[in-house]
Amino acid sequence: MASEKRIDPDDGSAYTWEEFSEFYTGKYKKKEIAAYWEDCEVVKKKKAKAKAKEGAKAKAKTKAKAKVEEEPKPKAKAKAKVKAKAKPKAAKEPKPAGNFKVCVCGGAGGIGQPLSLLMGMDPNVKELCVFDLSVAMVPPEGVAADLSHLERKCKVTGYVMEVGKNPIDFLEECLTGCHLVLVPAGMPRKPGMTRDDLFKVNADIAKGIVEACAKFCPEAVLGMIVNPVNSVVPAMAELYKKKGLNPEKIVGITTLDVVRANKFVGEAMGKNPNFINIPVIGGHAGETILPLFSQDKIGKTLEADKIADMDKKVQDAGTKVVEAKNGKGSATLSMAYAGARLGKSVLAGLSGRKRTECAYVASTVTDLPYFAQKVVFGEGGVVKALPLGELNEHETKRLEELKPILQKEIDSGLEYAKANELAA
Ligand code: LMR
């Protein structure tokens, strides 16, 4: 098993057992990781050329392996063994890929197109709907026609609507039967703007889509990529609640903050960001973005005098992209990548393979009613909110500082929900 590689269907990449188990350790029980490994397709033996390439990586692999061997976990092993004995076959039963229907609302835009591509490649997606307005950069039917040529099982259909019309009047076919609706919609920031400046216009855009989802796919998970996430998500979740629907179906996608934290720490520490997983809690704007470097095995090795700068770098990353795009939008490709990571985790959860991700949801882990935190996605969507875990001094101070800022942004959302109603 030592040199064997298997393809993780989650990202389509090949990993050794050491890399695979190191990545999932802490997120899943050892037994679950082993069962998932059993489900993964084995990469066939490589020829000489590929072997040479492997050689370059061998050093790193050996290191990782040595580390794993250095730190045996006899207790955990024993526990897993006992459990395995009690239920020997259950762990090995492969779970079939899901057959889910996914809609990307705003699917012909800057985020929507790559997000639709990435979701269309997910083996759990059977049907993909690309919805957008007639003023989108490309007609959504064109994006759908393009994506329908991928060698994947999913059927792709485009849906268009004129500006000024209501999604609820047009999206019955598109949304009916959807398990997941991803919403990269609304106006992006221009240099000098805060995410909060977008609230009025973007909340109305989000409401139109959420209203249609409430009618045609009320059980679907809605992944919101609409700024300001800190206010839009509470607004939409409270509107769902007012309508007697489950507010936990509304999930704010903050995964890009995690992706950025992983990348920046990887760069600073000379490590592969693929094996870094920094929880980012709080919200998705400025100081409300709080990376918990201390909770990752590489993140916690950052020198104390570098933490404040790294924290700020993660907070300001979106603004840096807005400035670099110079009035022509905000992060699209990395946002699509992050949105797809979250979307795939939701679908994996729905198919019975639980996944843990940070997301901005209705919450009770602090005194704030909405909060980005680690949640477990399972059958039905969010099945568990995880505790914040231990915070160091810097993180504890930052948490207290961000609370009043985030509360104010949540309040804007709550006021919006009070003043509005979802149509029947
Ligand atoms: C991001 O974090 O890149 C997005 O929220 C877009 C923005 O306005 O920064």
**In the residues, how many domains can be counted?**
3
Series of H and E elements: EEHHEHHEHEHEHEHEHEHEEHHEEEH
Number of strands: 14
Radius of gyration, rounded? 22 Å
Q: What top-tier CATH class of the largest domain fits best?
A: Alpha Beta
Topology:
Layout: E1 5-8, E2 13-16, H1 17-24, H2 30-39, E3 41-42, H3 48-70, H4 74-86, E4 100-105, H5 112-120, E5 125-133, H6 140-147, E6 155-161, H7 172-175, E7 180-183, H8 199-216, E8 221-224, H9 229-242, E9 250-252, H10 255-269, E10 280-282, E11 289-291, H11 304-324, H12 333-350, E12 355-362, E13 370-378, E14 381-385, H13 393-419
Helix pairs in contact: 1-2, 5-12, 8-9, 9-13, 10-11
This protein binds (2S)-2-hydroxybutanedioic acid.
Task: Write a compact overview of the structure shown.
By secondary structure, the protein is an alpha/beta fold.
Question: Could you characterize the architecture of this molecule?
Answer:
- The chain is of the alpha/beta class and 424 residues long.
- It has 3 domains: 46 residues, no CATH class; 155 residues, NAD(P)-binding Rossmann-like Domain (Rossmann fold), CATH 3.40.50; 156 residues, Lactate dehydrogenase/glycoside hydrolase, family 4, C-terminal (L-2-Hydroxyisocaproate Dehydrogenase, Chain A, domain 2).
- It contains 13 helices and 14 strands.
- The strands form 4 sheets. The chain has a 6-stranded parallel beta sheet with strand order 6-5-4-7-8-9, sandwiched between helices. It has a 3-stranded antiparallel beta sheet with strand order 2-1-3, covered by helices on one side.
- Strand 10 and strand 11 form a beta hairpin.
- Helix 1 crosses helix 2, helix 9 crosses helix 13 and helix 10 crosses helix 11.
- About 10% of the residues have low confidence.
- The structure holds (2S)-2-hydroxybutanedioic acid.
- (2S)-2-hydroxybutanedioic acid binds next to helix 11.
